[in-house]
Each structure stands twice: as structure tokens, then as C-alpha cells.
Amino acid sequence: MGTGSDMSLGALRRAGLILALLLWTAAVAAAGEFSGERAMHWIRAQTELGPRVPGTPGHRALQELILAHADSLGLRATVLRHVETSPLTGEEMPLAQIVVSAGPDGGDRLWFGAHYDTRAHADRDPERGARTEPIAGANDGASGTAVLLHLMELLAAAPPAVGVDLLFFDGEDQGRSGELRSYCLGSAWLAPRRQDFGNPLAGGDPIGLVLVDMVADLDPSIPMEGYSLRYAGNWTRAVFQRAAELGLDVFQPWEGRAVYDDHVPFLEAGVPSVDLIDFDYPDWHTRADDLDAVGPRGPGQVGTLLLDLARRPPAP
Fold first, then answer.
1. Tens digit of pLDDT for each residue in 104-161?
2. Are strands 163-169 and 92-102 parallel, antiparallel or unpaired?
3. 110-125 pLDDT tens trace
4. What span, in angstroms and rounded, lies between the C-alpha atoms of 255 and 253?
5. Under 8 Å between Cβ of 144 and 118
6. In this structure, what DSSP letter does residue 243 have?
7. What is d(CA 116, CA 191) in angstroms, rounded to the nearest whole number?
8. What's domain 4-311's architecture?
9. How do the domains of the chain map onto residue ranges?
């Protein structure tokens, strides 16, 4: 527990970090193309906040950063708050799903998503005594969020012809090992409520959802995730075909393993959804998921694909 002066210092440090990052925005967005190095800046910024486990200072600071970034860019942002029971601790866990919208209202839309929380327990760490410690989540959490944060800059600088909603999912990584339904609590809460009155996603389902998770491996390789291909094959193939047309070689045109991720509740709700994920990541759920384990190539190619989809959306 910190003293009052410690908390003030921490708040000032977070405010300074947010300001410094926002000052980058105009120059980077002016280039008009997605930058893997810019995505790395956003990964570093998140890890500097510390663990982003729901209810922690780092988690609240990242929420503030996302909202401040959207506000600075003139983008619409909505926070949908709810409380769940943590599968890991049994205690109440405050969650916040954040929706940032770019481009026109109404009509055909695209949804791009990523989870921004990080895991509370490094339960796969090789050191048994460290398995109750939180992870840095440079790849598992920060990489997908970094892609969306940079994409916000580019979509604000050159608004797309179709509406694009960026979904920042919370509560994805707080589940118990071996209990799939204890994961993805935020998307499981949001998907069936997407048409509720006042929900920013209400008004019709999108062309499709593209989920981004764990894309910053130093040797990235992204196959067609199993659930995506099985239950949204046309959408998945369309997304991967676009990647091939763009010459993005981290995308592989074969079926990979099925991963229970934030796209599954939307697949179950009838929304075409594809998960862009490189699950062959040895540092998953360990303390080694830090800045030394990630690089710009994967985020750069994934962001390039999403930006092209926003500029040239596939036919509904």
C-alpha cells in the first residue's frame, strides 16, 4: 500500500506518459501507413503501466489512456461497465468494455477487437514459485491493443468510408486453466447485449469482426484459427485472401489450432468473426512475456491488413 504522496506521484507519472504519447500522434498519422515501430511504442507504453489486471492501478491507467487517446483524436468512445466474479480469486471484479468508433454512423460497419487486460497469474512459468505472480503481457494483451491504438490514429486522420468500431475487451485472461468458459468474460457479456438500447454497437450486425491477439512474437506466423474457419469460413478466407493480395507473409493459408478467444461469443451470436492469433508462443502465461519477447513485424503486418480492410471493406 502506498502513501498519499506516492499515489499522487503515480498519477502524475501516468499523466505525463499519456501526454508524451499523444504528442506523437499528429506526426505518425500524417504518414498514412501502419507502422510496426509505432505499435511497439504502444506496447512499451502499456508494459510501463505495470500489470493490467482488472481492479489494479495499471488497468485503470490503461483505460484512461485509451479514452484520452480517443478524445484527442476526436473519436467517439463509450465505456460499458459491469462487475463479474473473478474465476481466479472468487472476488468481485470490475470490468469495462470500451468501444471507439471512427467513420460514419450507421450503414455497413467493420468491428476490430483486442483484449487489454493481462493475466493475474503466470501459471505456466517454469519457476513454480512464481506462478501466482502477474505477467507483463507484452504479447498477450498489449500487442493487440497496440494495433488498435495505432489504428485509431490513422482512421482519425483519414476517416474510412464505412464505419469502424474498435472493441477493447476486458476480462479475457482471468480464467482458470482448463475451464474455457471462465475466460473471455467481457466479450461473453457484450456479444448478447450488442443490440441493447444505448449500446454503441446497436443497429445491425457488422460485415464481420476481426480479433487481434498475440501477434508480436519475434518469429510471427498466423494460420487460420480453427473456430474461425469452421464457423465463419467465408469471412476468414476473405480476410486471409486480402493478406495474400497485400503480400503479408506472416499469414499462413492453412488451418491452425482452435483457440477459445474473444471471437467465440460473437460466433455464437451469429457474427462472422476471425481470430488473428499466433498461438505458437513459448512465453504464453509466463513472466517472460515481456518486451524482450516481442517485435514489430507481426503488429506491422496485422495493422496493415486491418487498415486496408477499413479502406476497402469486403462485400457484406
1. 998 889 999 999 999 999 999 999 999 999 999 999 999 999 999 999 999 999 999 9
2. antiparallel
3. 999 999 999 999 999 9
4. 7
5. no
6. H
7. 17
8. 3-Layer(aba) Sandwich (3.40)
9. 4-311
